[in-house]
Amino acid sequence: MRELVYYVAVSLDGFIAGPNGEYDAFAVEGDHMTAINERYSDTVATHVAEAFGVEADGRMFDTVLMGWNTYAVGLPYGITSPYRHLRQIVFSREHAAAAERVEGVEVTDRNPGEYVRELKAEEGSSIWLCGGGALAAALADEIDRLVIKRYPVLFGAGVPLFGPRAYAPQAFEAVEARAFESGVTFGEYARRG
């Protein structure tokens, strides 16, 4: 069965974006980028991978899930299909029936948990939960693995790693931890049990 992996950048104070969706405080230069390009190359946007010769081959992920706000980050720049090398699924109750349809991007208003259980039963690589925090909260029970890239920056406010959800502790165990000279740390956690 396929895994759902929440692979995401986060500030020291637990935010994946600033109050207005800002994410530019997350450094895109430094020794941590080698690790991203080697192991997690599927998470590099297609146009960036092509420009820098990064091979995104579907070895780690073949599907990406996004909430509308995460997907919409690229729209002002004309980026309507950010991960063309992956199956792209965007969850939105407001935009599912709208004209924002783009080839290679599926916008759905389906229940995220039900849909992810169906995706997990399919053949393929792991499923990448790209963001945002509200979608992560809706899928908390389905997340099999967390890969947290913690950046040495404080936002003070913004989009939390997980949006509000009913209190239900969920145990994960540490699988790997790496620290880089850039100050970025990677922590990988697998669901316990």
Automatic annotation (TrEMBL):
It comes from the Bacteria. Residues 4-185 form the Bacterial bifunctional deaminase-reductase C-terminal domain. InterPro entries: DHFR-like_dom_sf (IPR024072), RibDG_C (IPR002734), Riboflavin_Biosynth_HTPR (IPR050765). Transmembrane segments: none annotated. This is Dihydrofolate reductase family protein.
